Amino acid sequence: MRSFVHTASPSRVVFGAGTLPQVHDEAERLGGSRVLLLSDGSPVLRKDTERLREVLGDLVVAEFDGAAMHTPVEVTEQALGLLRDQRVDCLVAIGGGSTTGLAKALAVRTDLPQIIVPTTYAGSEVTPVLGETVDGRKVTRSSPAILPETVVYDVELTLGLPVAMSVTSGINALAHAVEALYSPDADPVTDAMALEAVAAIGRALPALHDSPSDVKARADLLQAAWLSGSCLGAVGMGLHHKLCHTLGGTFGLPHAETHTVILPHAMAYNAPAAEQTMERIARALGVPDAPTGVFDLIRGVGGPTSLRDLGMAEADLDRAAELATVMKSAPHLRR
């Protein structure tokens, strides 16, 4: 008999195409009347941010477009000053994991409600986990106060996401599902969600690679990101995420690309200790071997496969390994 404890996250999820106008009502539902609109200021996001600003109308009293990768605490402090000056009572963030991370960092410091509008497949919008970079190291903490109250998924916002970003963001979501499956805290609910996400990502990424405007592939991938993030948020992280947080926080490697490079290798390392889980992942992907199948998927859709190509120096590998193993880690990491 399998024993487990399952805790359901209390997030509200609005999913569909053309759902962006609902953000205004969601803000008012949370009691928001003085909204801080968060983004990363990138050109690819500018049009969507302008649309969201129009949707929110007079509710917006301040904007901060300086969200940065790996959520540096210095950036959070800048946004926190603006938040306090403008007496903000609700946070609305649009973008990928960087903007979501900033919203979470502000929320855990102020207990303000959050509405996240994802434009990538990060999945962090449905986890109670925050990773912040402090003094050159990325540290992670978990708290119910970190979990956003509402997530509004609008598939239309992902249609313009470049293929390269879509691929690495999608593999980032796949990493969430994979680690959730071999977590000691996994249960039948998270297993079902994770396996559905693995299968959907395995189908959607090649379809999206061949046809970037394929709405069904975009919708499948966005839903898979939601499922992956939800199950990872319920069970915690393992070796893969610890390595990626070290490489990103200390060495400045890009988040999603690092996940893409590391995932098949972390899976191969863990495979001897998680044979049944790897078999289930392989079946979901329709491949003979899970780590090899993930590597082939990444290569087939043009994703990065080398840390060197991301700017990692060979001379820094020993230090990265040391940091990943001496920093506080989840107890189930295979060493």
Percent of residues in beta strands = 5-15%
How many H/I helical runs? 12
Mind summarizing the main beta sheet?
Answer: 6 strands, parallel
Inertia-based shape: globular
SSE series: EHEHEHEHEEEEHHHHHHHH
Helical amount: 40-55%
How many strands in all?
A: 8
What number is the mean pLDDT? Answer: 91
Low-pLDDT parts are 327-335
What does this structure look like?
The chain has helices at residues 22-29, 43-56, 73-85, 97-110, 163-181, 188-210, 215-235, 239-251, 255-270, 275-285, 290-300, 317-326; strands at residues 12-16, 35-38, 60-64, 90-95, 114-118, 129-134, 137-142, 150-154. It is of the alpha/beta class. A 6-stranded parallel β-sheet has the order 1-8-5-4-2-3, sandwiched between helices. A two-stranded antiparallel ribbon has the order 6-7. The two termini are 28 Å apart.
Quick summary of this structure?
With 335 residues, this protein is α/β, with parallel strands linked by helices.
Using brief descriptors, characterize the structure shown.
8 strands; 13% strand; globular; six-stranded parallel β-sheet; 335 residues; alpha/beta
Which helices and strands appear, and what pairs or packs with what?
Blueprint: E1 12-16, H1 22-29, E2 35-38, H2 43-56, E3 60-64, H3 73-85, E4 90-95, H4 97-110, E5 114-118, E6 129-134, E7 137-142, E8 150-154, H5 163-181, H6 188-210, H7 215-235, H8 239-251, H9 255-270, H10 275-285, H11 290-300, H12 317-326
Parallel strand pairs: 1-8, 2-3, 2-4, 4-5, 5-8
Antiparallel strand pairs: 6-7
Helix pairs in contact: 5-6, 5-7, 5-9, 6-7, 6-10, 8-9, 8-12, 9-11, 10-11
